Structure formats: structure tokens, C-alpha cells
Amino acid sequence: MSETKPINLIRNFAIIAHIDHGKSTLADRLIQSCGGLEAREMKEQVLDNMELERERGITIKAQTVRLSYTAKDGQTYQFNLMDTPGHVDFAYEVSRSLASCEGSLLVVDATQGVEAQTLANVYQAIDNGHEIIPVINKIDLPSADVERVKLQIEDVIGIDASDAVPVSGKSGINIDQLLEAIATRLPPPKGDASATTKALLVDSWYDSYLGVVILVRVIDGYLKKGQKIRFMGAATTREIDRVGIFTPKHVIVDVLGPGEMGFITASIKDIQDTKVGDTITDERNPCAEPLSGFKPSVPMVFCSLFPADSSEFEKLRESLGKLKLNDASLHYEAESSQALGMGFRCGFLGLLHMEIIQERLDREFDLDLIPTAPSVVYKVYTTNGESKELYNPVDMPDASRLEKIEEPWIKATIMTPDEYLGGLLQLCQERRGEQINLTYVGSRAMLEYLLPLNEVVFDFYDRLKSISRGYASFDYQLAEYREGNLVKMDVLVNQEPVDALAMVVHRSQAERRGRQLCERLKELIPRQMFKIAIQAAIGGKIIAREDIGALRKDVTAKCYGGDITRKRKLLDKQKEGKKKMRQYGNVDIPQSAFIAALRMGDEN
Amino acid sequence: MTGFYIHWPFCAAKCPYCDFNVHLRENIDQQQMLDTYIKEMEYVFARYKTPVSSVFFGGGTPSLMSPQTVGAIIDKIQALWGFKNDIEITLEANPNSSEAQKFADFKQAGINRVSIGVQSFNNERLKFLGRIHDGDAALKAVSSAAEIFDKFSFDLIYATPKQSLDEWKTELKQALQFAKGHMSLYQLTIEKGTKFYLSEARGDFVMPDEDTGADFYEVTQEIMSASGMPAYEVSNYAANEDHQSAHNLNYWRYGDYIGIGPGAHGRLTVNGNKIATRVHRAPDIWQQRIAEQGHAYEQWESLNDETQTHEKLMMGLRLVEGMKLPETIARTKIDTLCDEGFLLKDGELVKPTRKGLACHNAVVGYLLGGSNIHAAA
Q: Which phi and psi (to 5°) does residue B109 adopt?
């Protein structure tokens, strides 16, 4: 491939879809139809490389694939497909993907209809000036209702769905029709082949063979091997040592031209040297103005991660470092807890991001972790006129020195079948929500609420799913910081505060949460030789208390000559088990208690 | 002191709570068993010659042994190691009529104490426990033992599912009428690898919780004390020192003991080293190996000081008489446990209190360096 495609034959597009609406399967089908992979090479969801992505059916990292399609007009088009994450936590990745395309396929499940996350992403696509092709997927299912979904797209999103393409990614129905629509209905990119090189750094990741791989979208000019390039934002210069595309296999090409997408490598070892959204230009003949770029991602949710085995602290540090190679949005810094030893305070884009990082640490690095309760970033103003951002409840200044605390609020969009509306309204009210809007589309309600993020990070999503039996969908974006009546709640075990269990709560919720936590800990901490008092306290004031009675009997009934060896080994095992406990003050607290208490949900 | 333990690995039926080394056999060749035991004894004697101070036939169901087999083993012990005339020689027996009929013959063979696995006099509970005898047979066996032997003991199992505290009180008081100086009262424990383990996991029955178990234990201690048969060990009760089991006391005092027969364990002091021994569990392999190489020991190795301390403490603190704690145990820990009412000091001895007996595992675990302890605020 030494020639670049004439720009009018290039189509760059993204796929927008809710989780489970069949985006990855549809992408598979497009790749297969264009001969990107032989049937024998196809595995399900080829673009979802990570084990976790395939298993959970979600896309975490953006991917790009170049496809070759010969349309009815006899022309061979170059399609560049961006596979984008569907989840709100990865909205930042979505915005990058969308900025490098001219069109989007809006994929909606014919049996489910439009969901909250789809809505947010499609509006982003519209904001990016995308041409949108509605695609109604899973039409081969018996419960598919294409007409209803078309109406819904028009009602809820407000775009014309009359020529939506009905397809089945799974059975391959109407895939040809969709490919033809991409060629005829989406616009080609704009770009000037004769201008100086200008390309967008869409994404980058670390590959153990290639070093840092940079995903690019060329705007003007060309990128070729050996070219000296300049990263305008980072103000660094490199020499391109590879230019390539994904088909989805890695294929080395000579050059990337205007409108094209692909990757380059430039002997870069550290992903931190590549800033997503940066403009790449020619070193000798730079462009005048950089592209507008993206705003950096900001972590919204924080939690601490401690290795269950304290000797694995260094391993945790290394593992986080490795994950960070491919995930610039992950933030972490070392932290020390009296209860849990050395660990890291980590910042995440959202709850799913947090869960994914924890799961990857467990799976890919075999780390047994104790995560603390998720928390948000508070703005704390002290009486001496200073203010600071509070990332960890433990760092909360003494109440006497507090002027005020502000907490982040989000704007949440919830879509639900109307039979669950009552329960969801109640949930939002309980969580101090303020209703903005409630609209109906057929039998589905769209609910907009302002909610404090700290009420959402706890277990809001789980509750939403359980109230709606999984049918409601939820999306949010940061709205504002607001002053709140927030207090730090301590948990004391035999009068000693357990730092890992401290949390910031709204005063109106404190008593309920304190009581729940104490009750839960009572179930989780095994009886010991003495009585244990578990208390929740605000400042010096106890708001809840539970007692764990002393151990009464644990003796083995029979122990004779033949039992000694076995009983001794049992005792050794118990001693070993004790090592897995954290000694807090004078109480042994099993790790499982921390984990379960911190994952505690509302059970009322 | 050196105890001598003979394991007879056969039973007529397997009890659902039993995790001992037990095998069911239609026909047992008594002569072949005897020959094997004798050969095994000769092997041990070549390595350990300290005279024997007690003998115990356990199992399995050793009352299924022929009195001739029992007699020949006792004679062989006498011939090799030698023992005093007043030595305690115990045999475990099931309260089935056929076995009880052999009591006189066993006495003839040299047995002077029997320990009967009554478990309960209540037919319903016996059925639950999978015992093949009924309450009448148990009564007959106990009264026959009382006539024939100066010393005998029987076992009961309590805190079974659905048993109320009052039911147990009544049962225990009735049982006390038949006792003669010694009883073993065991709280039902579900062991891995037993039929009960599966049943409980399946939810066929629910075991009493820790508090209920503790209530049963306390009531048992009170009734036994009031009846003049106080506990001398966690689950063993005797009217006086004379009725206490000399053989078992030796285990708890961490004395030496020889163990022969399939799966038997031993602790032998040889050249100042404490040796732990364990015989192969399977009767056929045991027999074959002894025929071929003179022994069937799977383990014959010295225990290090730490392990010995561990075992000594674990066994000794089961005794009401207490023990002299090794120097390696921190005095502050002992003082803390005394302050908290788990232990009592009596001169050089440290004795477990009733609470200390009940919380034996925690006490031993704490002394050996596990858990922390502190008074509630």
C-alpha cells in the first residue's frame, strides 16, 4: 500500500450504542463482509482485545479498523471504523473518537429501544457535526419492534429515523445495505493533501513489542516512515519509525494521507510523553495553528487500594504502573493506613472504571486487594480562609476549623419502563436528589435529576438496577459543586478509630449509614476472647453502637493420642489465618470484614 | 510413663459422625491380625524398651476382637516391655448384646476396664446417631460391665440437633444412675469426611450455635460437679483420681505412648528426642508391609522444641489439674489470661478455669502467639 486513498473515497465513522445492543457483533460483521478477516480468523468481538472486554461485553479502549468496500457505484471505498466505549465512564474516550470521524452509526436494539447512555453519546456526535445513520439491530429476534424503535429515535433523540437501516449483526441480515448507506450517506473527510502535515493524536497505548503506539487521524498532508515530527502540545520532536493500519491485524503501510486513520510508532517508551488530543506536525515545516484538542480527563471517583498481603505493596505499585501505561486517566499515589498498611489512593473516571481497574489488578496481576469505600472530591474551606480539595476522608480537617464543604453534584439521566418509575423516584429522593424533568416516550420514562455524586458512588447503580430489574439505564455528567451539610463519620472498634472505614456523609444520612455499618461489622467480625464495641461517631458524638459478645466456647470435644498431630496442624492453620487479619487496636478484624463492610449496600 | 495403644480398625457399621480410621469387613482373620500385631510389637521393642504403664484397645470396635487375640497381645506386651500388676488395661466396647456377652472373657484375658460407646439411652437419638444398638441393649451392657469390672466408663453425645437443654438435663441425670466412677460426655462435633458433614452442608439438620453449645457445656459441668463426678478434662468426668483414666491422662500430660495397628499414632522419647510415629491407615497395606519389612510406619520423625511446646500446651491445658507452662511462654500473656478469668495460678501450676476450658483453642492460640487480648472498655 504505497498510495493513499483519494479523500472523497474515505469514510470515517464511529458506532454509538448502549451496552448489549450488539455494537461489537455488528462491527465483527462489517469487518467480515469487507474481507478484513477470513471467517476462520473471526472470533467473537474481534475489537474487544482485553479479556475483560469480551467477558463483560463492553468496550473499554477505542479501536480503529480500516476496511475496503466496493460499492454499487463501482468505486472502492476506504472505511475507517472507530469502535468506541459505550459507558459513561469512558465518555472522554468517546469524545476523542467522535472528534476524529465525520459520521456515526447509531445502533439501537430493536427489542430494547433507546437508553440513557446512547442519548448522551449521540448528542455528542451531533455536537461534533456528525451525519448519523440510525441502525436498528437484532431485528431477527421475535420481540423486535422496528417501527416502535424508529418512533422512539425520532421522539427522544429528535433525528429522522425514516430511513433507519434494519439489520441483524448476529445473522448478517442487511449488512450490505448498511455498508452501502455508509458509502452513500456519510460525508468524506475534509483535508488538504498539499498542506503541511497536521494530524490528531487520538489515543496511545503501550505495546511490549512496539513501544508506545499512537493512533492518529491525519487532517492535512502526510505521515511517513523516517519523517521528523513534532508534537506541538508536548513540544517534543521524534522520528517516525513505523506507519501502519489495523485491518484489524497490524499492517505496515508507507504513508497515511489526509482523512486517513492509522498508527505510528516513534521509539517512545513512556505513554506519558504522548498527550491525547495533541497535534502532530512536520518538524521542518510545521503548521501554524494546532488543533483545538481535548480537555483533559478528570478523575471523579476515588478509593484506596491496599494489598491483602502487605508484602505485596511493591507489586501493587508496579501493577498500577503497568496499567497506567495504557490508561492515562488512572491516577494514584501512595498512602498509609493504620488499619490496612501501605496502599494507594486511586482516582478513576467513574465507578465502572474503578471496578475494571480492580478487576484487572486481580486478574492480570493476581493481586488480592482490599478496596475502601469509593469517595468523591470535596472542596474544603477552613476558617483561616484556605481551601483545598479533599481526596480522602481521613484528611478531613477538624470540625472546629471548617468553614464549609462543597461536594460535586451530577446531572443524571435515567430511562426506565414506567412501572419502575415510582421506585426510582423514591431512590433519587432518598439520595437527596432534585428532580429537573420527567418526560414520557410511550411507556418509557426519561427522568432527569440533580444528585450529589457521593450518594451515587456508594451503591446507587446497583440499587437502580435492582429496583428496575435491570431495565433502567443511567448516565451522568458533572454539574456543579455545592455547599453541603457534610460530616466525617468515624468507625471505632473498642474506642479506636479505624481509618479505612471513615467516610464523609451528609448529616441527614449519617445515622442510617452509621447504624448499617455497625450492624454489618457485627456480623462480620468473629467473636474474640473479650467483648468488642463497634461504634459510629461524628466528632466525639456516638451515633450508633453494636457489641460483639465474648467468645464462649471453641474447645474440641475429643483430643486423645491419635488426634494430637491433626489438632496441632489445625491450630497452626488458625495462626496462619490470623495473619490474614488486621490487628486493630486489640481486635483482629478479618479482611473479608473490611471488604464486605465497604461494599455494603442499602438493604432496607 | 508409657501408654500402649492398639488400634483395631474394624466396625460392624460406620457411624455418621465418626472420622476415625474405621473399615467394614465381613470376615476378619483374627490369627492373621494377631500375628501382624506381634510382629509390629517386636519391631517397636527393638527401638523402644521403656516399661508400659497403661494399655488401651481402641478402634474401630475392639470388642469385636476375640478375647484370645486380646489376651495374646497383653501377654506379648508383658513379655517384651513388662508392666506392674495394677496396670490399667482398657478396652472400648459397643453396647451390643453379643459384645457384652464377651465381657467376662475379656476380663479373663486381662482387661480390667471397659469404656462403652453408649452415646445415648434414647432410641430416637441413637437412631439419629446411626447406632445399631437401642437403649435397652445399652442399659444391659452397662449393668453387665458394672457387675464384671471394678472400673468402667461410658460415653454420651449431647447438643445434637433439636435436643433441648431440658431434655439433656433429664437424660444426663438418668444416665448418672448407671455410672460407676467415670463418664465421657462429648458435644456432637461435625467432622469433615463424615456422613454428617454432608448432611449438615445439605441442610438436613441444623447444629446448635456457639451460644447453645456453651449453655449445654455449662449445664453439663454443673450437673456433673453437683453429682460428685466433676470434670478432670474437657469432656471427661470422674468420681475420684482412682477412676480417672490413667491411659488418657498420660496423653494429656504429654507422656510417651506406643501406637500399633492401622493408623495408630505414637510419641516416643528416644535418646532424648521426642519421636512422632504414625502407622499406615489401610489394614491391608499395614499387614502387607509388616509381613515384608517388619513395620508399616508412615512417619517416624523427631519433633522440634517448638512443636513439642505446642503439643504439650494443647494437651495439658485440657486438664483441670493444669500444668507447668514452659519457660518460653511469656509471663505477661499468662498474667493477662489470669486477669481475664481464663486461667488460674496455683503455685508453679497454671490451671484453666471453666471458661478457660470452654475457650481452650483461643487460650492456646493466644499463649502460642496468635491473637491479641484486651478487656472490653
A: -75, -15
Q: Which domain holds residue A136?
A: 7-185
Tens digit of each residue's pLDDT (9 = 90 or more) over A278-293: 899 999 999 988 887 6
Q: For residue A290, is it within any domain?
A: no
When pLDDT is averaged across residues A531-547 and rounded to a whole number, the result is 93
CB contact under 8 A, A561 and B358: no
3-class DSSP assignment, residue A96: helix
* Chain B contact set for A588 (CB, 8 A): 371-372
| Lookup: cell for B229 | 463426678
Distance CA B117, CA B114 (A): 10
Tell me how close the Cα of A550 comes to any Cα of chain B, in angstroms.
9
Q: How many domains does chain B have?
A: 2
By three-state DSSP, how is residue B272 classified?
Answer: coil
Q: Is residue B145 part of a domain?
A: yes
Residues B228 and B97 in one domain: yes
Please, how many CA atoms are within 13 Å of residue A248, restricted to the half-sphere of its CB?
22
Please give the Cα distance from B6 to B246 (Å, whole number).
16
Mean pLDDT for A296-317 is 86
Enumerate the residues of chain A whose CB falls inside 8 A of the CB of residue B274: none
Q: By CA distance, what is B4's nearest residue in A?
A: A561
pLDDT by residue (tens digit) across A107-148? Answer: 999 998 888 777 777 887 887 889 999 999 999 999 999 999
The DSSP code for B323 is B
**Which CATH number goes with the domain that contains B232?**
3.80.30.20
**A345 & A385 share domain:** no
Q: Does residue A512 sit in the same domain as residue A541?
A: yes
- From B188, B371, B377, residue closest to A588, measured CB to CB: B371
Residue A367 inside a domain? The answer is yes
| B189-204: pLDDT as tens digits | 999 889 999 999 999 9
Query: What is the rounded distance in angstroms from the CA atom of residue B160 to the CA atom of residue B157?
Result: 7
Q: Is residue B265 part of a domain?
A: no
Nearest CA to CA, how far is B311 from chain A (Å)? 7
Q: Looking at A498-539, which runs of residues are DSSP E strands?
A: 503-506, 532-538
Cα–Cα nearest to A502, from A262, A222, A303 = A303
Alpha-carbon distance of A456 to A468, in angstroms, equals 16
Q: Do A562 and B259 form a contact (C-beta atoms < 8 A)?
A: yes
Domain of residue B202, residue span: 2-250
Inter-chain touch A530–B376, beta carbons under 8 Å = yes
The answer to whether the Cβ–Cβ distance between B372 and A557 falls below 8 Å is no
Partner residue facing A558 (CB), from B235, B263, B361: B235
Q: Which residues contact A363 (CB under 8 A, 6 or more apart)?
A: A51, A52
Give strand pairing partners of A58: none
Provide ipTM, 2 decimals.
0.93
Q: Is A99 within the bounds of a domain? A: yes
CA dist A13 and A188 (Å) reads: 10
Q: Which residues have a Cβ under 8 Å from the Cβ of A212 and sit 6 or more positions away?
A: A204, A205, A206, A265, A266, A268, A269, A270, A271, A273, A274
